[in-house]
TrEMBL record:
Any one cellular-component term (Gene Ontology): transcription factor TFIIIC complex
SUPFAM superfamilies: WD40 repeat-like
Source organism, top-level taxon: Eukaryota
Keywords: Nucleus, Transcription
GO biological process assignments: transcription by RNA polymerase III
Source species: Candida theae
Localization (cell): Nucleus
Stated name of the protein: Uncharacterized protein
Amino acid sequence: MNFRGKVLSNYGNNEKFYDLAKQYRSHWGEKIFVMNETYAHLFKHASKKNEYIPSTELKINNLEIKEVDAEYVKFRFESTCSIRLSQGKTSSEIILESKPTHLKDIINRNVFAAQVGGFITSMQWLPRSLESEDGISYLALGVISGEKGLSEVNAINPELSVFNNVSKKHLQSSIQIWKYSAHLNQLEMQNTLVTSDFGAVTDIQWAPIYNDDDVLGVLGCGFKNGEIHLMKIDAALPTFGVVLEPSYRLRSNIKGSSNLTCFSFVGADKLLSGTADGYIMEFDLPLRTDGDIMQPNFKTFLSDGPISSIVSVPVSTKESEHILIINGQAYRGVAFASLNPLVDVFCPLSEKSTVKPTYNYILQDVLLAHNPENSNILCLRSLQDTSSTMLRLDSHITTFKLSETVGHPFMLTGTDAGDVILMNYTRKFFSSKGGNKVMVPLKLWKFSLDDKDSITVSADYEKMNVESPIQASYMPWQIMISALAWNENVVGSSIYAAGTASGILLVERLDPNFQN
């Protein structure tokens, strides 16, 4: 099928989108590994635009925080580890600390590495104004650890259950805010906010708004106490602090009888959450609204077990409409339109995703993983159709990420075998040949464990097969890639972050123009 036929089949008769897709293909279609940040400037007119809310108009309360010193945080989050960094035939012993180490002189790659002090559960870059040119980006991390280190962070710990009702908490959790200056090529930790009183932090997302410089943004956080907290992140927050009270709390009801398990922002004014007993609930947000809005707009049953993930995908052709993709315990997922959720239902999806889905805003594609070793792409217009296979690996996919705001075509994949993989997923769609033979995955990093249980990190680039004939097997938890995130700002759009279960954070800028 030619290119026009593919666009017509996937997106319908839309001449405006066809012209955009042709331009997108001409710039990105042949790129295998090279990310040029100037292309993000070319396509920012088609990128996702978040709403501007002046700081003076934000109705949400400030955080209640008790300032502490660095030793208080260091005692609870051990932020030192030793790794062996190898490239080619050379290797070096590196001590990672909370202060980032620039590895340019060792492996000739523009990458920072740090030890954050615990299991990295989630991460996201703050999406700022697309017109911002100051090159400042902020990365939020969710980190958990135990009183005896990471040995307590495991699947059988009752504090990590979706049905958690443990009164005495032993796990430590925190929110970390990192600042990256693209023009100066500097990375530093700006804030560490200890949130252990609320249980383990499992998911963090920035509200899709941008503010003035005195307020960075509003961060949504899911905790294992069954609540979702909104935190107003001010530029004036202390470097180290304990959160006594969040800016706003969301519960399933006044008694909190059912834990909230996951959530997604639906624009700047609503939030959709899932519960441990299979319901979904929509809440109004207190960003521009005063008064008591704790009562949900609706609550409806969806699954015979906990809701595992919710993703809100903005529809590029319809302002303020979103397609909400929900995965629970059923064999298939469910999707429906946000403007009329009780009528406009696209269900069931062709497949359920075992990993939280992600999307490309410009191309309106959704990435999911029906099996732990497979990743697949669905077109938003035809979610019930058969998906297109992207990768079939010899390991289990633990996380992946597309560019949800800027909309470039590169896909990041992390596995339980310690692989960080980069691939231009659109080549399968844009190429006249089609099929998986035009796909060329590149392994950016490989984490492994030696005989002494020490972590080795290989910085050698390695081409991979799209479809591995080897059956997937389980690997040591210490090397698992637990979170990935693309920088969603035009300046620095080639920057990504990768986090591991052992607390190692990598932040790399891929554009070759910034390697020196």
